[in-house]
Design brief:
With about 325 residues, the protein is α/β, with parallel strands linked by helices. About 25% of the residues lie in helices and about 25% in strands. The structure holds S-adenosylmethionine.
Length: about 325
Amino acid sequence: MNDQFIFCTTVIGNESLLKEEIRLYFPDLTLSFSGKGLVTFKNKGEKIDERILADKSPVFALRSGIHILKTDEDLLLDDLAKVTDLIAREKFGVHYFNIKGEPFSLVGEEKLASTYSQLNNRARPYEYIVNVIEISPGKFWIGLSFVTNATNPYPNGNTEIVLPPNAPSRAYLKIAEADKIFNLNLNFNDLVIEYGSAPGGATTYLLDKGLKVVGVDPALMDESCANNPNFKHLQIPVQDLSQEKLPDAPVQLVTVDLNLNPKQSLKEVLRLTKKHAHDIRGILFTIKIVNEFHLQKMGEYKKLFIDFGAREVIEMQLSSHKKEYLIYAKF
Ligand SMILES: C[S@@+](CC[C@H](N)C(=O)[O-])C[C@H]1O[C@@H](n2cnc3c(N)ncnc32)[C@H](O)[C@@H]1O
C-alpha cells in the first residue's frame, strides 16, 4: 500500500499554528515536510479522500488536500493531465499559485492557461480543485482538494484585493476579503457595530460602501473616519460598555477585531450583541491566537455562536491574517 500524504498551505508565519491544530485534531497525521507556507503530513490511518478531508478541513490551512505528485516545468502538462483524468467525470477547477506569493514562471502559466480555460477561477462548492503549487522556479507539486462552502474559494486564499492608499490600517483587508469570499450583502445604510475599530481600516471599507458604523475602541480613530457623519465612536473599553450605550436602531452586522484574549472578547461581545440578537444577519469575529492553548478551545468558541442562535458557523483563515482566524456566524 502506498503511503498517503496530505498537503496544507497556510499563511507564511502560521505554520506552527497549523501543525499544532493537526496534532490536536488529526491524530493519524504525522509531519512529513515543513516549509514556508506549505506543510505536508503522512497519513498513518485509513486512507481518506478529498471529500472527507474537505468536510473537516484544518482551519489554519488556506488550502488542504491529497498530495498526488511532484513534477517540473517539462512534465507539468502531462502530469496534470494524469491527475485531471482521475476526476474527469466530475466538475473541477485548476488553481495555480506560487507558495511564497512570488511571480510565476511565465512560461508555465501561459501553457497552463491555454490548456485549462478555468485556470484560477473562483472555486464553486462541490467541485474538485487541482492545485498546481509552484514550490520553486520550475518545480511543482500537484494536489487534489474538494470544495465546500467553508473552503476559501480563491487560489491559495489570494483574493487579490489591494490595500487602498486611504486605508488607515491593513485590517481593511480582513473585512474586504471576508466580503469578497462570503458576499456579505452589505446594503447602503446598514448599521454595523465594530469592536476594536481603531485606527479604522475596516471602518473605512464599510463607510466607503455607504454603511453606518459605530466603532468601539479606547484608541483614537483616523480623522477620515472620526469626521465622517456616518461614524460614531464609543471610546470605551468593551468590558466597560453597557447595552444602553449601543444604538437602539436595528444592527445588521457585528465585526470584531479586538486585541484581547478570545475568551474575554467573546464573553463581552456576545453579552452586548444580545441587544440586537433579533436583527443581526452576521457576526465576523477575529479570534486572536494570543497563545497556542486557544487552539484547544476552537470547538468551544464555535459552539458559543451556535448556542447564540447562528444557523451556520464558518471558521476560516484569510490570507490577510497573522496569528488569528475568522469565525463567520450567519443568522
Ligand atoms: C487589530 S486592532 C483593530 C484594527 C481595526 N479593526 C482596523 O480596521 O483598523 C485591535 C484594536 O483592539 C483595541 N482594543 C484592545 N483592547 C480593547 C478593549 N478592551 N476594548 C475595546 N477595544 C480594545 C485596540 O485599541 C486596537 O485598536
